[in-house]
Amino acid sequence: MVHELMLNSTQNDSNDSELLPLTPPATVEKRRSDSQTKRSEVKPKKLLTQLRGSNRKSRLKFRPQPFTVLDLNDHLDGLRDDKNADFLRYALRHSRRIVVIAGAGVSVAAGIPDFRSKEGLFSSLKDKNCASGKDLFDYNQVYSSDEMSYKFNGMIANLHRLSQGAQPTAFHSMLDEIASEGRLQRLYTQNIDGLDTRMKHLNTKIPLEKPPPVTIQLHGSVNHVECNMCSKIENFDPSIFRCSSQDVDEAQVVPTCPQCEEFESVRMIAGLRSKGIGKLRPRVVLYNEIHPEGDLIGEIAASDLKKKPDCLIIVGTSLQIPGVKSLCKQLVQAIADRKGIILYMNKELPTKSLIDIIGSIDLIVLGDCQEVSKLF
Ligand SMILES: [Zn+2]
Questions:
Q1: Distance in Å, CA 256 to ligand 1 centroid
Q2: Whole domain around residue 130: which residue ranges?
Q3: Out of 216, 306, 340, 353, which could bridge 335 as a Cys pair, Cβ 3.0 to 4.6 Å?
Q4: Residues making up the binding site for Zn(2+)
Q5: What is the pTM of this model?
Q6: d(Cα 105, Cα 114) in Å, to the nearest integer?
Q7: How many domains does the chain divide into?
Q8: For the CA atoms of 106, 112, 116, 120, what is the dihedral angle to 10 degrees?
């Protein structure tokens, strides 16, 4: 009887409310009104639901024990049956807001020397009559004498030449791909070679400004010079920097700024007092100097923490610079609190200096980070 009523009701919409039982039995489907029927037939909405379903982050099924090391050298022929490798793959493919802190290890495969390894810049420069290679990155030392300035200029010119001739590595390409998918929240790079920012999706802004670019160059780059007076930024031109006392051309130890010179000559003609002429120096941040963009980088880092990143990749760096280590510590804390993923990729195991964060690292990936890009 009820069924009959229901069937009848479909033929006479105006009597719907009278014919339907107040609580239909479970076997009876409540009849939908015309407007509801129409809505369920709209296909794009269904499509949207399907799309949302396919975008859903797949669940993390396995997390390595603390202090787990994945040695890439043991898996050069492939990482198929390894839970830790699956975890690494999951982190790279499924994380949605990845923050990367990169160091020199990322660029070694491109032929750019790192700083602290045995073959690194610090030891190779030390051999060339310099107390320590590190002195050539110390503001107090670099401009202390012409001799030191020659060496500094030579080192920057050499790094510039190397980076101009180098190609970004497979790891750079992997980061670029992640960025192209909108999953790279930020790349904090300590590298001054500019190989990363050459990639299409790893752009930066020089000088740094808001809204922040994907890549933040924490220590500047060898590709630019800046005037210490008018702040004019130019491309680095090695020919204007004198690299030895034998240089007899127009190169200078600390070149003067052409823009300041122009302003000065205009002031002279106008009879105005002299304001002085600035000096050009490589736009690289040295030890013992105040970071010119430090406050802005701090603001960007604070806003990155608020955006709830779900994965941190520390790669090719032993985190020896206190400012970078402190940034890393904050990110580790925020990501670990939200059960995100923290990866440490380096040729060497973390040192004692990382004792504060080592317990929060999900996986230590030991070996050449270029091998990781093959996994991806
Ligand atoms: Zn100037």
A1: 8
A2: 118-165+222-284
A3: 340
A4: 227, 230, 257, 260
A5: 0.83
A6: 6
A7: 2
A8: 140
